[in-house]
Every structure is written in structure tokens, then in C-alpha cells.
Amino acid sequence: xxxxxxxxxxxxxxxxLFAALLLRAGFAFGAADPLLLPDAKVYHRMALRLVxxxxxxxxxxxxxxxxxxxxxERAAFWPALYPLFLAGCxxxxxxxxxxxxxxxxxxxxVLLVGHLACGLAGHDGDPGGGGGAEAGGVAAVAxxxxxxxxxxxxxxxxxxxxxxxxxxxxxxxxxxxRRAFQPPAGNVRPPASLGWGAVAGVLAGLAALAxxxxxxxxxxxxxxxxxxxxxxxxxxxxxxxxxGVLLGAALALAPWxxxxxxxxxxxxxLTTQGGDALYEALxxxxxxxxxxxxxxxxxxxxxxxxxxxxxxxxxxxLRHAVxxxxxxxxxxxxxxxxxxxPTLHADEHRTLARDAVLAATWTVAVTLAxxxxxVRLVQRPRRWRALALPLAPVVYVFVSHAVFIxxxxxxxxxEPFILAIAGAGAADLWGAARRRRRSA
Length: 440
What we know:
This protein is mainly α. It has one domain. 67% of the residues lie in helices and 1% in strands. The chain has 15 helices and two strands. A two-stranded antiparallel ribbon has the order 1-2. α4 crosses α15 (415-439). The longest helix is centred in the first third of the chain and has 40 residues, at 81-120. It starts with 10 loop residues before the first helix and ends with a helix. The model is unreliable at 62-70 and 124-131 (pLDDT under 50).
């Protein structure tokens, strides 16, 4: 596989990356309460249990009493990767080691966003060579600056939650997929495509182990890559890259699926929380938002094991959705509006200043991303292939949270790619302004 340069071109990229690390370390060690949110406490307890006893077991959500009508402890209800990551950090150096690792991971995400933006600005492949280096550098720095100062990226780097780990894995997976399907050199041998494809698949599989909602992402990347690659699905290199993605994902998921088969006696590749999530999102009384006061679970799930419970809840949720199509479509609109809102929804987390900052950063990102999309889809329609893979997670999040509950938090995995496109849009605007100055 051809190596890539670590930093996009220009000193400003290094300065931006260092500033990102300082912001995250400063927040993590100066202001963050890593156990602020309820799920963080669950992950922390799971990690402590892993360190103490080597057991991967998670309880039902403590703040939602309805969940206690099922098994009080569940072997595969929670995604596996983050408790393992957190347990490793706690064993190595306690909470400080975990916060330091997450600050580094979040900073790595900033770097990956810069590389994606650099490629989208017409400087694909190795950021150290070829044409378009100046535009690529501007795009990279703009996207990195947006990611470095993103309020949610900074906040979640100081929380014991899956977001920071998931974002880094997703950004790495898409960058590797672009190398596999849209290589910088015209004639890349299939082994190179297979290698980068496998890297993308492993990272996407690990992202699914961190956030089960991304279980379908490896297949999506393989399919989009086949369609968007220069040679299309007829190209041997493209088919090899797609096979690499699927193989890498299978390798990443196999150990956890095997463990679940031994513990539960069933094939459970990710988690058993799908039924609970779907019933909350589509079942009777669904509002499109998290139901914090617990749910009135149906009598059919009383005393069921976690696998059977998930299957029954899935069936009941889908039946209710089919029998009430008007409500289902209205809920989809509500979930989309909640997920892509510029401000938070929970009153206890809202202040005027916080709303203003979040709305401003989201407006800037969306405006620049619209410019980047417009230039590539309208002025340069042949460049749509370059956008396909970075847009795949955005579309994936949009569709999945038209089905599952909506929250600003749940759009976070799409935002590295929105910011990369925004960086390309900033480079387009910069180039247009420079051309106007030269012609004046």
C-alpha cells in the first residue's frame, strides 16, 4: 500500500492540530465530568468489572426503570468495544489515562477530517505531492479548524461515552475506503486495493462494535465504493477493494460474535438492544425523542431472556409501525428535525449562550458544506464520485435516525464528513475570491 503523509501541507495544519489537542486536554483535565451522563456511568461500571473480574456484563439503564422488567444484567446488551477500551485505559493509568487517550483520539479525528477535506478539494491521495496542493492545504486547515473547535467534539472527548472512539474509527474507515476505491495513481494493483479495503472494513467493523447502529456500514461502504470508483463495479480493483472491506469487517466482528454464540447460544454479531431501541422509536406512545420516564413494556416480554426479548420487541414495534403508517411517517419527520436541529432539546442542558454557540457553529458548517456540495455537483458534476464515500455515513445517519429516536447527539458520527465537505467549500470560496482579486 502506498504510504500517505501524516499532515496535510502547510504549517497551519500542524498549528491547528496542536491547538485541537490543547483544547481537548484543557477541557478533559480542567472542566470535564466524565460521568455526567447516565450511559457514561454504565460504561464505567462495565469497565471496572472487566478490570476486576474479567466479565463483560452490563445492566439495564438505571435511569429508565422500565428496562428492569427484562433481565437485570445482560451479556450483550451494550456495545462491546468501548467498555474494553475504557477498561484498558483504567488498568493502565486510571481515569486520567482514559481522558488522555480520548483527547488524543479526538485530535486524530481532526487530522483525519483534514485529510478528507484535502482530497475533496482536488488534491486526492498523498497530500505531499501532485497538483492542487494549495487548495488542498486551505481545505484541510479550514476543516481541521472547524473540527478542532467543534463544541460537541470537545465535550464528548471528556465523557466516558462511545462518541470519541466511534468518530475516529468512522473517519479512518472512510479515508481508507477512499484510498481503496479512488486511489491517487491511475493503475493501482489489486493487492493495494485489497489492503486499503481491508483496513476500511476492520475500522468500520470496530465502529459497529462501538456503536451497534453502524452494523450495516461495511456493506454500505463496499456498495458505494463499487458504484463510485472510477472503473465501477466492472473494475477488478474495485471488486477486490469491496471484498477487502467485507473481509476486514468480518474479521473485526468475528471474535465478539463467537463469544456471544458461546454465552447466549445464538448468533448475535453486535448487541441485543435493537428490539428495545426499535420499540422505543416505533412502538405505542413513541414521540421521536428518548422516553426518560421509562416505557410501558408489553407483557409479552416479561421474564424473557435478552435475545428473545429483543426479537419480540422488534416484531411488536414493526407491527405497530405498519398498522399506523401515518404516525410512523410523522414520527420520521420529528426524528429528522430533532437529529439535525442546530440546538439541544433537553431544557436542563440549554442556556442562551450555549444555544448561540451551537447554532453559529452548525450554521457555518452547513453553509460551507452546501458551498462544497454545490461546486462539486453543479459546476463540476464529474466530481460526484469524490463525494460518494464521505457522504455515505451522512446518508446512513439520516436514514437510521428517521427510524430510531432522534437527538442532536446521534448526528455526531456524520459531522466529521460534513466538516470535511465544508473545508472543501471554504477552499472553493477562497479560490473564487483570489481569482476575482487577480482579475480586478
